[in-house]
Predict the 3D structure of the following.
Amino acid sequence: MRRISVTTPQRSYEVVIEHGLLERAGEYVRELFGERKHLFVVTVPAVRRRWGKKLLASLKHAGLSAKVLEMPEGERYKRLSTLENLAEKLLALGADRDAALLAFGGGVVGDVVGFLASVYMRGIDVVQIPTTVQAQLDAAVGGKTGVNLRTGKNLIGTFHQPRAVLVDLATLSTLPDREFRAGMYEAVKCGVIGRPELFDEFERLEIKKLRKNLPVIERVISQSVELKAEVVSADEREGDLRRVLNFGHTIGHALEAETKYRHFLHGEAVAWGMIAASNIAREVGKLDSASAERINDTVMRLGSLPKVAVRSQNIFKLLQSDKKTRDGAVHFVLPSQIGKVEVVKNVPSKIVLHAIQQLNDYVAD
Ligand SMILES: NC(=O)c1ccc[n+]([C@@H]2O[C@H](COP(=O)([O-])OP(=O)(O)OC[C@H]3O[C@@H](n4cnc5c(N)ncnc54)[C@H](O)[C@@H]3O)[C@@H](O)[C@H]2O)c1
Ligand SMILES: [Zn+2]
């Protein structure tokens, strides 16, 4: 078991990571709130079907009763209308300012339920219980919440820190391979931005064997959470420091948008974004060729990625309209060595275009 603290001006809390933790989730929740809290588990059918009984049994065992609310499955329901429907249901079920929500699912559930908790009756408690790699090592930690607008992702949202994050690594056993791998690219990202020993681990491990290797999964998730916890604790609201977490995301987001969010899973787009960013870092002379190669090889050896077939010009235009762009200049998070990144402004357009173009030429093996 690992316990990692997150300390922000808004709130301090723990991320608890353990295989089989769901069975003891009730105890943790009771420790946090006592017996009298009105609890509402919000989840999606796929997660409820596989893991709902375990969570509810453990809450019951701890003397807590909880009601379950379902939201529909998928990124396309990460919308304000879902928030509104859930809020109506909560009200009908008698949820008052003393209620707490348990966000039980992947990043979509975490973002929607976190947002709902931050605005329902001007703010109630939320506990994150993430069940995907992506959510366990990234989305559930740090307090960013939000939903999409028709015109773009995560355009409305809040910062609302959870009371705790309960990570049961056992839940990952039912994830489809592709989802599992996509989340792991974010762990590679953590390696590059600040955990060189984690990066080294990815250079050695085989992703197929990783699925069954619990000690390594625990290490990989814990080290990634530790890194995110450090960054968020130093910079809750995304000043310059928190921006290092966007390594691979500048071009990654543009690839997702250009392909209408249908072609890549988020982590897969980030994987391509990391390759492009390392190539850019090499071109502008920030990173030596050997390290750039290591990053590219490590990303590629995790398994096949959906091919990139985009017009570099389109991606370039999207970069310039990214909400994180300031003064029209695209800022890139670029590695200067494995384990260290910098925010670099004013990368020449030619280099960016070339790096995007290169992605089209990669052949994954
Ligand atoms: N708030 C943040 O800081 C932050 C950070 C990163 C990503 N995000 C957001 O997270 C979302 C992506 O999260 P995600 O990748 O977890 O996607 P997701 O929530 O859509 O989950 C992926 C799929 O896996 C299913 N699933 C979840 N747990 C499962 C389990 N244990 N077994 C089997 N199936 C399971 C889900 O039902 C879904 O079909 C995006 O909306 C992204 O914007 C937020
Ligand atoms: Zn990401």
